[in-house]
Amino acid sequence: MIEFDHVHKRYPERGEALSDISFALAAGEMAFLTGHSGAGKSTLLRLIGLLERPSRGRVVVDGRDLGALPRRQIPLHRRQVGMIFQDHRLLADRSVFDNVALPLQVMGYGHREIGRRVRAALDHVGLLKRERATPVALSGGEQQRVGIARAVVARPPLLLADEPTGNLDPELSREIFELFERFQYVGVTLLIATHDLSLVARMPYRIMTLADGRLVNDSGGW
Ligand code: ADP
Ligand code: ADP
Hints:
By secondary structure, this protein is an alpha/beta fold.
C-alpha cells in the first residue's frame, strides 16, 4: 500500500528532515511511527498525503508513484487517504453531522447518500446520538472520534493519524486505538504517528522508529 524508496526531505530553512527512508507497508497492515518531537513523523505522513513532496527518492501509494502523479489527480489521491490530526481540525460553528459530511459534499454526493454515509461513520465511532451537537459541546475524546468519522466517511483504503491521542488520557487513548483496530479488521491500512509508547509497546503491531530524520528501527519490515 505504501512504499518509500530512498526518500529524502529537505526544508530550505532546516536541512534534511528525512534522510534516506526506505520501507514498505502492506495493504491491511497497521503500523506505528514513533520518535521524539522533530524526528520527522509528520513530514513522513505529509509526503504520503501529498501535502509535501520529497526532495529525492520515490513514494508509491496504492500503486501510484506520487512523483509522477499528474496535478489533476492530486485531489483523487487525497480522497483515498484519510487523515486524522491531534487537534481534530473540526469546524467549531458546524454540527457534528456537517463536519463529517464535509468531504462527501466536496466530492459531490447527493443528500440521501451523504446522510446514509455520515450516519454509518458516526455509528462506527459511537456518536450517532450526537450528530446535532457542535464540537464545543463534546469532550476531547468525542471530538477526536468526530475527526476519525470525518477521515473514514469516504471509505479511504488508507488512514494516517498524526498524534491522534496527544491530548487524551490513557483510557480514552485506548478507546481510540481500539477503534483503529476495528478499521484494520475491515481491511483498512493504518499508519499512526505517536510518541505514546507505553500504549503501543503492549500491542502486537509493527513499530517504526525515526530519530533525527532517519529510520533507526523497524520491528516488522520486510
Ligand atoms: P515530528 O512530527 O516527528 O515532530 P516533523 O516532521 O514535524 O517531526 O519535523 C521534522 C523536522 O522538520 C523538524 O526539525 C521541523 O522543525 C522541521 N520542519 C517540519 N516542517 C517544516 C516546514 N514546513 N518548514 C521547515 N522545517 C520544517
Ligand atoms: P454499505 O456501503 O455496505 O452500506 P457502510 O457504509 O454502512 O456500508 O459500512 C459498512 C462497513 O464497512 C462499516 O462497518 C465500515 O466499518 C466498513 N468499512 C469498509 N471500508 C471502510 C473504510 N475505508 N473506512 C471505514 N469503514 C469501512
